[in-house]
Amino acid sequence: MTVTIVGSQLGDEGKGGIVDVYGDAVDVVVRYQGGDNAGHTVVYEGDEYKLSLVPSGAVRGKIGVLGNGCVVNPNTLFEELDALSKRGLSPDVRVAERAHVILPYHRIIDGMEEDVKSDDDLAAGTTGRGIGPTYEDKAGRRGVRIGDLLNPETLRDRLEYVVPQKRVLVEDVYGIELGGDVDAEAFDIDALFETYRGFGERIEREGMAVNCGEFLQRRLDAGDEIMFEGAQGTSIDIDHGIYPYVTSSNPTAGGAAVGTGVGPSVVGRGEVIGIVKAYLSRVGTGPLPTELGSVDGQTPENGGRPGESELATFIRDKGGEYGTVTGRPRRVGWLDMPMLRHAARANGFTGLAINHIDVLAGLDEVRVGHSYILDGEELLSMPATTEKWGDCEAEFRTFDGWDDVDWAAVAAEGYDAIPQNARTYLDYVADELDTPIYVVGVGPGREETIIVESPF
Ligand code: GDP
Ligand code: IMO
Ligand code: MG
């Protein structure tokens, strides 16, 4: 069977940890979208593994696959594989021949476009990994795919077509001269050919390239358990998220079919687990109706609500809500139920994993954005435009807080050992989404995770 792991909010909900928690029963872990914009953390026997591209299952010696829906930076891929090997692991990772390749010019253009957009407050605050420009080239039918790296003639043809266009874009549209601040080699056909042909040779040598859908079907036919590991989250999905402050792929569960080459019925016959952080955190820009204070330390004097910036700081510090790559403080907010109802519908969740309830421990009360008020009407789900979403006022419900306890001991005892007030909170979320709780996260480690139900 298959299990699909999907972020239900804005990314960083703890997907990597849940992939790992269920990992024992799994044979193959497949990423179906995104690239090295992800940052997935697995804590195993006290050791922390941060992976941006390689599927989290690699830490447990499972076969990892980067599906055709992914955009792959071979530099990152090999850096991560080599780093895991140095730590004593033997990662077995395959890459779809149909997956698109992130080239150096994609990263450079990502930065240039963000700069231009920032003048109009349109910048998404991207990770700068070239994700958007690579998906643009995929849709524009001028991309380079992993399969092309294995064939020198095709690779040269593709580069000869696309690279001159990129030079024109940078020089004539952005008005930036190559060389100086901008690495001219990133726009040099011969240099790119040499480097990327080298990557192709390594992929070939190590037998990494696969016809993804066929590979997975063979594994399913042989009785393997397959996990689809989503990156990012539903509200930054390019179709179902807060456009344009989104990523350029489909983290939602439908992406697991399109992005791997198995049918939607295969994904649908399995389980789809929504990963929920017990509050919100956000690295990028855009509105956030349940936001607590601001990163700059908003106070009642400058428009913040009383006590909010202290609360935000408490949650940010306790939850380690600082970007993994840039270290920038993440914006934080209360749980947003309209966002979760939208996610439950768009993904068809069959189960929930609710993480980080330990982070909220110690607060007198915990609030939840239960609904929105927009133009005098109550909304239970997200409106379809981001402008309307920005106009939504959250209607809050208040829950009694719970104490900090020995969470590892609670995890060892199981669900009933969770403080009563926290269980009331969890039950509310499960009831509102009409979806059972499969896992509760009470800390970053595997031993701080309560498994209520296993999909396998
Ligand atoms: P992902 O991108 O969804 O895989 O999540 P990240 O790894 O980017 O961010 C989640 C962070 O929270 C990581 O540092 C995890 O180790 C940590 N984490 C996951 N679950 C829990 C939890 O239940 N409690 C706490 N305190 N931390 C958690
Ligand atoms: P994981 O898998 C949180 C955000 C960026 C930006 C927007 C577009 O760890 O949950 P991109 O570089 O993708 O073009 O940036 O999406 N973003 C994430 N936020 N977690 C992630 O991944 C993210 N990946 C991208 O901050 O707002
Ligand atoms: Mg992350």
Walk me through the structure.
- This protein has 456 residues and is of the alpha/beta class.
- Helix content is 35%, strand content 19%.
- The protein contains 16 helices and 20 strands.
- The chain has a ten-stranded mixed β-sheet, with helices on both faces. Strands 14, 16, 17 and 18 form a four-stranded mixed β-sheet that branches. A two-stranded antiparallel ribbon has the order 3-4.
- The longest helix is centred in the middle third of the chain and has 22 residues, at 152-173.
- The model has no long low-confidence stretch (mean pLDDT 94).
- Bound molecules: guanosine-5'-diphosphate, 6-O-phosphoryl inosine monophosphate (IMO) and magnesium ion.
- Residues 7, 11-17, 38-41, 43, 319-320, 355-356, 358-359, 441-444 line the site of guanosine-5'-diphosphate.
- Guanosine-5'-diphosphate is lined by residues 7, 11-17, 38-41, 43, 319-320, 355-356, 358-359, 441-444.
The largest pleated sheet is described as: 10 strands, mixed
Radius of gyration, whole Å: 22 Å
Number of helical runs?
16
Low-confidence stretches: none
Q: State the distance separating the first and last CA atoms.
A: 8 Å
Order of strands across the main sheet: 9-7-5-2-10-1-11-15-19-20
The structural class is alpha/beta
Number of beta strands: 20
- Spatial shape: globular
